[in-house]
Design a protein that fits this description.
CATH architecture of one domain in chain B: Alpha Horseshoe
Oligomer: heterotrimer
Number of helices of chain C: 15
Number of strands of chain C: 12
CATH class of one domain in chain C: Alpha Beta
CATH topology of one domain in chain B: Leucine-rich Repeat Variant
Largest sheet of chain C: 10 strands, mixed
CATH class of one domain in chain B: Mainly Alpha
Number of helices of chain B: 22
Structural class of chain B: mainly alpha
Chains: A alpha/beta, B mainly alpha, C alpha/beta
Shape of chain C: globular
Structural class of chain C: alpha/beta
Order of helices and strands of chain C: HHEHEHEEEHEEHEEEHEHHEHHHHHH
Strand content of chain B: under 5%
Strand order of the largest sheet of chain C: 3-4-5-2-1-6-11-8-12-7
Largest sheet of chain B: none
Helix content of chain B: over 70%
Distance between the termini of chain C: 43 Å
Radius of gyration of chain B: 31 Å
Shape of chain B: elongated
Order of helices and strands of chain B: HHHHHHHHHHHHHHHHHHHHHH
CATH architecture of one domain in chain C: Alpha-Beta Complex
Radius of gyration of chain C: 22 Å
Number of strands of chain B: 0
Chain lengths: 142, 370, 465
C-alpha cells in the first residue's frame, strides 16, 4: 500500500486558497480520504500522527483540520486544545473523525470547541460535504 | 570404571537410560530441523505475500474507487483483481469495507460479493472447524446481508466469540423478531459479557428497535430486559418511559437497577416518581443507581432525598448521593455543607467533605481541565 | 555406583526434557489457538462500548525519578476508554514526588478511602489538574506490596491493573487483556500478557516505537529468557489448566477477587507470585470454577538489569520469593483437591524451578568431583552437555517460531540470528551466573532470612519484572 502522506493538489478549478489538514492514523482511511479530497478544489495535507499535524499547523494556515482522537504522539484533543488556546491557530475549524464511538467523547469534542464530529467507519462523501460547510465562504472558487 | 568410549556399546549393554537419551537427542535434532524449516518457510511465504500485495497496489488498486462509480469499469476491475490470489483480494478489500459506511461501503461489499468471497464466507461459517467459523464470522460481521439472518441465528448457538459476532451482524441486518430470537437464548452469566447485546442493539435502526421493545415484557432474561431499558432510554426514550413503572415494580433486582439507571436520562414527572420510589428500594445497588440518576437529572428538589441517601448504610449509595449533590449547584452545596457540619453519621460527613473539596477543585480548573 | 549417580542426573535431565517436549506441543497448540480466536474487528466496539469496564492502573513508585514521568505519561496514553491511574509514592528519598508535582500540576484533595486492607499511613492524596484521571498518593514507607494495597483501597473500578513504575505499557495491551475477560466465559480472575525487554527499544513519550534485540549481551540473554518464559512455558501452562504465577510487572485482576483474598502480603519478597498462588488456593478450596490466564500478546516492556550484580540480586530475590510463595501454600503440592494446579503446576515449579538449581549445582559438583578423582565418564559428560545445549536451543527456536506465529517482535534476520546465538551461548556463563544467584537466594531463605517481619528496602533497582 502506498504511504499516503503529503499534499493533494486541488482538483478542477484550483483557484481556491482554502487549505485542509487531515490527520488519521489508519492508512486505509487516509487513502480513501485522499481520493475524495483530491476531487475538491482546495489544498489538502494528509498526515499520520499528532506531531506532524502539529508541525503543519504551525507552518501554514489551515481553514479546517480533520483529526482523529487516537493519534500517535499527540491526541486529537491535545491538538484541539492547542488550536483553541493559540491565537494564531484559532481560526482553524476542527472536525473530529474518529473510531471512538463513545457518547462522552462526542460531548467532550463539542465542549472543547470542535466544529463538527463524525464517526468511523465513515461515508467519505459526507465527510467532504461537512468539511465544505466549514470552509469560510469567501474562500470558495470564483 | 567405565572410561571406555563407545556410545553404542552402552546401547548394546542395554543401559536403558543412555539409550533413551540418545533417542531424545535424535528426536530433538529432527524437531530443530522442522522448526527451522517452518521458520524459513513462513518467512518466504510472508515475503511472497508482500510482493503480491505490492503488485496489486501498483497495478489494480489505484483505479478502484473510480471504478466503483461505473458498471463497465467495475467489471473490468474485477477481472483484473481475479488474476490475483484470493488472499490478496481480501487483504485489499477487507480494510476498506471496515473503514467505510454508507453508499461507498455498499458498493465495496458488492465488489467483494462479486468476487465470490462472500459465498465462501457463508460456507465457512458452517464449517466443522471452529477456527474457520470464527474467521468467517469476522468477515460476515461486515458483509452479511438480510438473507443471511437465518445463518446468523444458527450461529448464536456456538462458541462465545462466534455468538458475539453473529449477534452484532444480526443487529445490523435482522428483523426485530430475529433479534428477539437470539436475545431469548442468550446467557449472560456476568456483567462483563454484555457487550454483544449492547453492540447488537446499537446496530439496529430506530424502527426495528421500537418493534423489539414491544416484546420487552416477554423477554425471559432479566439482564436483557435491563439492557433493553438502558439502550431504549438513549435511543427511544418515550418508549422507555412507558415501561418504567413496570420495571420499577419488578421482582428482579437487575430490572430495577436498569429502571433506576434509565431515570437519570429522563426529565418527566413520571420518571421522577419512579426514581424517588427506587431511592428507598431494599437493594443497595438499586439505591446507588437511583442516587446517581438524581444527580444526573439535575433536579434541585431532590436534594432532600439525596441527603437521606448520603447517610445510607452502603458505601456506594453514600458516595453516589454525595457526588449527586455536588451536581446540584448551590442547593446541593448547601446540603453538603449541612451534612458536613451537622450529620450524626461519620461516613456522611466524610463524603460531604470530599465532595465539597472536589467541587472547589472543579471550579478552579474549569478552564484548565479538558 | 558411579554409573547410578550418572544415571540419576541423566534421568533428571530426561524428565526435564520430556516435560519441555510436551510443553513444545502444548505451547504451539495454545498460541495457534489464540491466534485463531483473535477478533481485532471487535476492538473498536469494545473501545466504544459503555459497558467496557473501567480499569485502574496502580503504579507503586520508590525512587524512580529517572523514569517516573515517562512511565506515567505512557500509562495515561494507553488506548483504553475509561482509565484511572494511581501512582503510589512509597516515601521516595529522591525527586520522584517533586517531578510528579511539577509535570502533572498536582493538587491535594480529600478522598474517602474505602479501607478494606490494612496499610501504612497515607500522608496525602493529590489529583492532577492536567489530567483528572491521575491520582498520586504519598505515603509512609511500607514496601511495594503495601503500596499496591493502598492503591487497591483507593481503586473504584471493577478491574485493576498493577504495573511496575519503570515499565512501559503497549498501547492496546490493556484493551486486549480486557477483551479476554469480556469474551471468555470461564470466570477469569486474573490475566497476564507477555512482557518484553524495553532495553532494546526506541521509546518516545512513553510509547514504544520500535523494538529490537538489546545490544548488551547480558540484556540479550534476558530477552531470550523472557520470551521463552512467556511464549513457551506460560502458554503451555494455559493449556494445562492455569498459570500458577503471573508476572509482577503487569497483571490485570478483578479487584474484588484480590481484595477479598486479602490483598498483597507485605511480609514476602515475591508478593505478586504469592498473590496468584493464594488466589488459586482459595478458589480451588471453594470449588468455584475460575481461570487465571496468560495471553501471548505483548502488553508491557520492562527495564532489565544491565549489570551482573543487579541481575544477581534480582534473581536472588525471585528465588526467595518463589520459595516463600510455594512454602506458604505447600499443602497444594500433589493434592488432587487443587486440580491441575496442585497436580501439575505446583509440582513443576517445585521440581524444576525450586529444586532445579540445586540439582544442577549438584550435577556440576559431581562432574567436577569425578574429573578430579579421575573416574569421569566422558560418555556421560558428552551426552549431558549435548542434551542440555540441544534442548535449550530447540526451545529457543520454537519460541522464535511462536513469535512469528503471533507476537511478531523479533522479525529481522539480524535479530533472530542474535537471538539464536544468545540462546546457544546462554549455557556457557549466563546460566551459571543466574544459577549462583538462585542458589544464594535458596541458602539465604533456608538460612533464616525469611523476610518475615524484616522490612527490607524492597529496592526497585533496575530489575522489576
Amino acid at each position: 500500500m502506498r504511504a499516503v502522506l503529503g499534499t493533494v493538489p486541488g482538483g478542477a478549478g484550483s483557484g481556491s486558497s482554502a487549505a485542509v489538514l487531515i490527520a488519521q492514523g489508519d492508512s486505509t482511511s487516509r487513502e480513501i480520504l485522499e481520493h475524495y479530497f483530491g476531487l475538491m478544489p482546495w489544498k489538502t495535507v494528509i498526515v499520520s500522527n499528532g506531531d506532524e499535524a502539529h508541525q503543519h499547523l504551525r507552518a501554514e494556515r489551515f481553514d479546517v483540520a480533520v483529526l482523529d482522537v487516537n493519534l500517535s504522539h499527540r491526541s486529537g484533543f491535545d491538538l484541539l486544545r492547542e488550536i483553541r488556546d493559540d491565537e494564531d491557530l484559532s481560526h482553524t475549524r476542527v472536525m473530529l473523525l474518529t473510531e471512538d464511538g463513545r457518547e462522552r467523547t462526542e460531548l467532550k469534542a463539542f465542549e472543547m470547541g470542535a466544529a463538527d464530529f463524525a464517526r468511523r467507519p465513515f461515508a467519505p462523501a459526507v465527510v467532504v460535504a461537512r468539511v465544505k460547510r466549514l470552509i469560510p465562504q469567501n474562500e470558495s472558487p470564483r | 570404571m567405565d572410561a571406555s568410549g563407545g556410545i553404542f556399546e552402552s546401547l548394546e549393554t542395554g543401559t536403558g537410560v543412555y539409550g533413551t537419551v540418545l533417542i531424545f537427542v535424535m528426536a530433538e535434532g529432527v524437531l530443530i530441523a522442522l522448526c527451522a524449516c517452518w521458520l524459513v518457510f513462513t518467512a518466504l511465504a510472508a515475503s511472497r505475500a508482500l510482493r503480491l500485495d505490492d503488485a496489486f497496489a501498483r497495478k489494480v488498486a489505484p483505479g478502484f474507487l473510480d471504478a466503483l462509480a461505473d458498471e463497465d469499469a467495475l467489471a473490468s476491475w474485477l477481472r483484473e483483481a481475479r488474476r490475483f490470489p484470493e488472499a490478496v483480494q481480501r487483504r485489499f478489500l477487507e480494510p476498506r469495507i471496515r473503514a467505510t459506511s454508507g453508499d461507498l461501503n455498499v458498493r465495496i461489499v458488492d465488489a467483494y460479493t462479486r468476487l465470490g468471497l462472500r459465498s465462501k464466507d457463508v460456507l465457512q461459517a458452517e464449517s466443522r472447524s471452529w477456527r474457520k467459523r470464527i474467521r468467517a464470522m469476522r468477515r460476515l460481521v461486515f458483509v452479511a446481508g438480510p438473507q443471511h439472518a437465518e445463518l446468523l441465528i444458527r450461529r448464536s448457538d456456538d462458541l462465545h466469540a462466534v455468538r458475539v459476532l453473529a449477534a452484532i451482524a444480526l443487529g445490523r441486518v435482522g428483523t426485530a423478531r430475529q433479534v428477539f430470537e437470539v436475545l431469548r437464548r442468550l446467557e449472560l452469566p456476568r456483567r462483563l459479557m454484555e457487550q454483544p447485546v449492547h453492540a447488537m442493539l446499537e446496530a439496529m435502526d430506530e424502527e426495528r428497535l421500537v418493534k423489539l421493545m414491544d416484546l420487552w415484557s416477554v423477554t425471559p432474561s432479566a439482564t436483557v430486559r435491563r439492557i433493553l431499558l438502558e439502550v431504549a432510554v438513549r435511543r427511544v426514550p418515550w418508549l422507555c418511559e412507558r415501561y418504567l413503572p413496570l420495571a420499577a415494580g419488578s421482582f428482579s433486582t437487575e430490572v430495577r437497577i436498569g429502571a433506576a439507571r434509565s431515570c437519570g436520562m429522563l426529565a418527566s414527572a413520571s420518571s421522577r416518581r419512579v426514581v424517588l420510589r427506587l431511592a428507598i428500594d431494599e437493594e443497595p445497588q438499586v439505591r446507588a443507581q437511583a442516587a446517581r440518576s438524581l444527580g444526573l437529572r439535575g433536579d434541585y428538589g431532590s436534594a432532600e432525598a439525596l441527603a437521606g441517601l448520603a447517610e445510607d448504610r452502603d458505601f456506594w449509595v453514600r458516595q453516589n448521593a454525595a457526588a449527586a449533590l455536588r451536581a446540584l449547584g448551590d442547593t446541593g452545596r448547601r446540603t453538603l455543607e449541612t451534612l458536613r457540619d451537622s450529620s450524626q453519621d461519620d461516613f456522611a460527613r466524610d463524603a460531604a467533605r470530599q465532595e465539597l473539596e472536589r467541587h472547589n477543585l472543579r471550579v478552579d480548573v474549569g478552564e484548565a481541565a479538558s | 555406583m558411579i554409573e547410578s549417580i550418572d544415571i540419576f542426573f541423566l534421568s533428571y535431565l530426561l524428565a526435564m526434557n520430556g516435560v519441555q517436549l510436551s510443553f513444545l506441543v502444548l505451547s504451539a497448540w495454545e498460541v495457534g489457538r489464540r491466534r485463531a480466536a483473535q477478533t481485532p474487528e471487535l476492538d473498536a466496539s469494545t473501545f466504544s462500548a459503555e459497558t467496557t469496564p473501567p480499569v485502574t492502573i496502580i503504579s507503586p513508585a520508590h525512587n524512580e525519578e529517572a523514569t517516573i514521568v515517562e512511565s506515567v505519561r505512557g500509562n495515561l496514553r494507553v488506548e483504553y476508554p475509561q482509565l484511572q491511574v494511581i501512582v503510589v509514592n512509597d516515601d521516595s528519598s529522591d525527586r520522584t514526588l517533586e517531578l510528579l508535582k511539577e509535570r502533572f500540576d498536582l493538587r491535594p484533595i480529600n478522598v474517602v478511602v474505602h479501607k478494606r486492607l490494612e496499610t501504612s499511613r497515607i500522608r496525602s492524596i493529590m489529583e492532577s489538574r492536567v489530567d483528572p484521571r491521575l491520582l498520586v498518593v504519598d505515603k509512609e514507607h511500607g514496601g511495594k506490596a503495601d503500596s499496591l494495597n493502598v492503591g487497591l483501597n483507593l481503586c473504584r473500578t471493577p478491574l485493576v491493573c498493577c504495573v511496575d513504575s519503570d515499565s512501559i505499557l503497549a498501547r492496546r495491551g490493556l484493551l486486549h487483556l480486557v477483551e479476554l475477560l469480556l469474551h471468555d466465559d470461564g470466570n477469569t480472575l486474573a490475566v497476564g500478557g507477555t512482557i518484553r525487554l524495553g532495553n532494546g527499544c526506541l521509546v518516545e513519550d512513553g510509547e514504544v516505537k520500535r523494538c529490537s534485540l538489546p545490544k548488551g549481551w547480558l540484556a540479550r540473554f534476558q530477552a531470550v529468557e523472557y520470551l521463552r518464559a512467556f511464549l513457551f512455558a506460560r502458554m503451555g501452562f494455559n493449556r494445562l489448566g492455569s498459570n500458577l504465577i503471573l508476572s509482577g510487572a503487569f497483571g490485570l485482576f478483578v479487584r474484588d477477587a484480590v481484595v477479598e483474598a486479602g490483598g498483597y502480603r507485605t511480609d514476602t519478597v515475591g508478593e505478586d507470585m504469592e498473590l496468584t498462588v493464594r488466589l488459586h488456593s482459595r478458589m480451588r478450596a471453594r470449588g468455584v470454577p475460575y481461570r487465571i490466564q496468560q495471553i501471548p500478546e505483548t502488553v508491557c516492556f520492562t527495564e532489565a538489569p544491565e549489570s551482573a550484580a543487579v541481575l544477581g540480586r534480582q534473581r536472588d530475590r525471585w528465588q526467595r520469593g518463589l520459595f516463600e510463595s510455594l512454602w506458604a501454600h505447600r499443602f497444594m503440592m500433589l493434592n488432587p483437591r487443587y486440580g491441575a494446579i496442585g497436580m501439575v503446576g505446583f509440582p513443576f515449579y517445585v521440581v524444576f524451578e525450586l529444586l532445579g538449581p540445586v540439582i544442577e549445582l549438584a550435577g556440576y559438583a559431581w562432574f567436577a568431583a569425578t574429573m578430579i578423582l579421575g573416574v569421569a565418564d566422558p560418555k556421560f559428560a558428552l551426552l549431558f552437555t549435548i542434551v542440555a545445549v540441544v534442548w535449550q536451543f530447540l526451545i529457543s527456536l520454537e519460541t522464535l517460531a511462536l513469535d512469528q506465529m503471533y507476537t511478531n517482535v523479533y522479525l529481522s534476520p539480524k535479530d533472530r540470528a542474535f537471538f539464536l546465538l544468545a540462546a546457544f551461548l546462554e549455557t556457557f556463563g549466563y546460566r551459571q551466573l543466574t544459577l549462583a544467584a538462585r542458589i544464594r537466594g535458596m541458602v539465604r531463605q533456608i538460612g533464616g532470612e525469611k523476610g518475615w517481619g524484616r522490612m527490607e528496602r524492597k529496592g526497585f533497582e533496575g530489575g522489576l519484572r
